[in-house]
# Entry
Amino acid sequence: MILANLGALGVLVALFVGMFVGMSAFTMTYGEGWSYFSKSSETCINCHIMDDHFDSWVKSSHGHVASCADCHLPHDKIHGLIAKADNGFFHSWAFTFQNFHEPIRIKQRNLTNLLNNCIDCHSDTVHEMLPTEPGGDMMSCVHCHAEVGHATWRRR
Amino acid sequence: MASQPESNVGPDLPRPARRRRNLVLVAIAGGAAIGTFLAAALAVSIFERKNEARTPYVVTVPVDEDTTDPAVWGANWPSQYEGFMRTLEDGRTRYGGSSAIPKQKLDQDPWLRLMWAGYAFSIDYREARGHAYMLLDQEQTERVTQRPQPGACLHCHSSVIPAYRALGDGDVMEGFRKLCAMSYEEARNVTDEHGDLLINHPANCVDCHVPNTMELRVTRPAFIKGIAALMKKERGIDDYDVNRDATRQEMRTFSCAQCHVEYYFTPEEKLVTYPWSNGLKIEEIESYYDEIGFADWTHEVTGGKMLKAQHPEFELWSQGTHAKAGVSCADCHMPYKREGAMKVSDHHVRSPLLNASRSCQVCHNVPEDELLDRVHTIQDRTRSLLDRSAEALTATIESIAAAREAGAGEEELAEAIALQRRAQFRIDFVFSENSMGFHAPQETARVLAEAIDYARQGEIAARTVAPTLDRQPLPEPTVEGVTPTEEAPPGPYEHPVRQGRQPD
# Structure
């Protein structure tokens, strides 16, 4: 009765929409898409490109105290989600179309997030060294401490 | 019940409203169809990437120890094969390159003819081309076409192990001894029991990899013996077996060092030998040669017993900072590249300067231009030291010749000639090595500084013998074979005029 009320076109549309939802759910599950809603660092090696970065993080001085997200995503909820969506989208895009620079480089906006995260955890120690006005020019922590997050990244 | 609501969704709507509703439905259906299409495409892409990461290769054609044709291996490892074949391509850096018309270095640096006077290298000495050319180019150089050469040359230039095995009845070492002693022609034409040629290809897959597992290995008898002698000296190990005892990272250097080394042919058997039992530094290699009284050739002008440095890449690299940091040959010359979700080492072996992003920048987080500039600084400095060394050596040789002219005897000139040997071997060591000093900049500068010092000491020694005579520019030298025999055609040497290599 309901089908009859929808009409032939309506049934077809329902079918198509259903297929779309089903296919999308499958791809999402198969591609381990749900893991992107977790905080697990393993999520970052879903596509294998980050294998070296993951391995070197495990061996780094931060390997036991900070996850990928702790250093690479902003610590406040909203900006954290935006950065996750931003990086998630561009990483998937790059990996699907295989057109990214190697060795991979960190983007400026992600470097800024990183720097803010260093300070967020270590401000008690380093506050004397920070710029007097917010956003003022300062040295990047990882310029000197390049290996805190990825200890042996240069050795494969 | 049957009143209004039904009429809103039923077919009995007014015409325009019905058309609008249908349009909306078609748009939704179309959007869903496109969305489904994309979602499916994405799923397939993810599937492919996952599979690439899971199965690095599929063996479709079995290969074994006798498979010397790289194209057969190429069926299983297409990416590596493609890389190997790309070594046929041209490419240039400031101080080296691979070209279809290789530069005649003897014309670029005329002092080489005097340095090598009397030796086959003063006939033809060109830039080396890529790996896939190594056998073809060897057959065409005038050093081989005009002078008798031993089968020993094939040790590195060809996929030679099956021939060794056949000649030695299964014993590679025995076959190695037999083939080295043959003439080049005879060795090149060794056949199996069916009369098929055993040497058909330049060194390729089977020479560095265990068939089917693709594990790295070393196959060259001279390296196996040479590295064992070196490990005895350096680490006190008595029975070093490189294929058993080397780490994977060491193997990523040793596979290359099978051939990219200093070597000599023993005078009697023409056995390819690596002179490492005293160590890898130039004075340690030199002391080895001095101890056994070895000379590659007799200098035509001075009569000195001279040493020809081959291409000591492994030896010089060993003295450099990259070696100390555990960086292997393959890290720079065969850097990993990505293919889908796979990591593949690039078998298009070439200068890292042509691929600095994947070679250098993996470790050096510095802009590419700056890295290239650093390398060029090192190479320019090395080149300028080389030019000064060459001038000094020319002065030595011409002074010795002038002293001879003035009637000086062997005994009086012995010291000057000994110094010529030291200086020439050092200059040759740097000039013949393929990095223009980059593999170990400070070591290179030290070696060249010593060369200049020895050469000028030699000049002084010769001038002391005959102080009144000025040195004169010398006539064109004649040439003997690398492997002197009675059949060697006598001089005088004529300047070869040839534009590039002719196809055979």
